[in-house]
Specification:
Length: about 230
């Protein structure tokens, strides 16, 4: 799923947990993908991109057992949420949901490339939209992002960002429109860095447009008199 629509999930969670840290929720929704980027650049996880690449259907996430398997995701959630639970109590639940949301949303659009656990080559799961109907996958992703924005009653600028990311992604999802694929054809490292830049841009823009100051508890109260 596109970075912008993962990040939009933070809006949904912020609506459900108003006291949760918005930056923490944003980072949580992309923690798994940030790990994926690092592991791909380090050569621990592997992606193959066909040459020529015509759409996301030609991107094959052949080995990502530590970042995107179901069991590994559970371990990541526990490793981050349990210390937060110990020190911050109720802040752990929204953060855990943010981290877990990533793999759940990926399952909705990915080719069957998500393993149950590391070192289990089969079965791998996913709806297969990326492999069989990439433009439908883009539509599903964009609807999710808009839904999260709508529930949150977000800033119109944030909606514009979500729509803009969707429009800019069309060449990468459409096998008919080929304008940006040449730069990615056969270039798995370039693809990993491109994903990281998307994560960074989406996170900063959604945070910038949707950050809201916390209201003071004493805003409408009179100052106590001296003496």
């Amino acid at each position: 799923m596109q970075a912008i629509n993962h990040v939009a999930t933070a809006l949904l969670l912020k609506k459900a947990f108003p006291k949760a840290s918005f930056p923490a929720l944003i980072i949580g929704t992309e923690a798994v993908e940030i790990l994926w980027v690092g592991l791909n650049i380090a050569g621990i996880e592997h992606t193959i991109i066909d040459d020529p690449m015509r759409s996301v259907a030609d991107i094959h996430l052949i080995h990502m057992p530590y970042s995107h398997s179901i069991l590994a995701n559970l371990v990541i959630v526990l490793a981050i949420a349990l210390p937060v639970l110990f020190f911050k109590g109720r802040a752990a639940l929204p953060l855990a949901l943010a981290i877990a949301s990533h793999i759940i949303l990926d399952l909705a659009v990915h080719a069957p490339d998500i393993a149950i656990a590391p070192f289990m080559d089969a079965p791998k799961i996913g709806t297969g939209l990326y492999a069989n109907s990439p433009m439908l996958a883009l539509g599903v992703e964009s609807i999710w992002g808009i839904f999260c924005w709508w529930i949150y009653r977000g800033n119109w600028k944030s909606l514009a960002v979500i729509l803009l990311f969707g429009l800019l992604a069309i060449p990468s999802y459409s096998p008919v429109i080929n304008t940006s694929e040449t730069a990615l054809s056969g270039q798995s490292d370039v693809f990993a860095w491109a994903v990281f830049l998307q994560i960074f841009a989406a996170s900063v823009l959604i945070w910038f447009f949707e950050r809201r100051p916390t209201k003071s508890l004493f805003k409408n109260s009179e100052k106590p008199s001296k003496g």
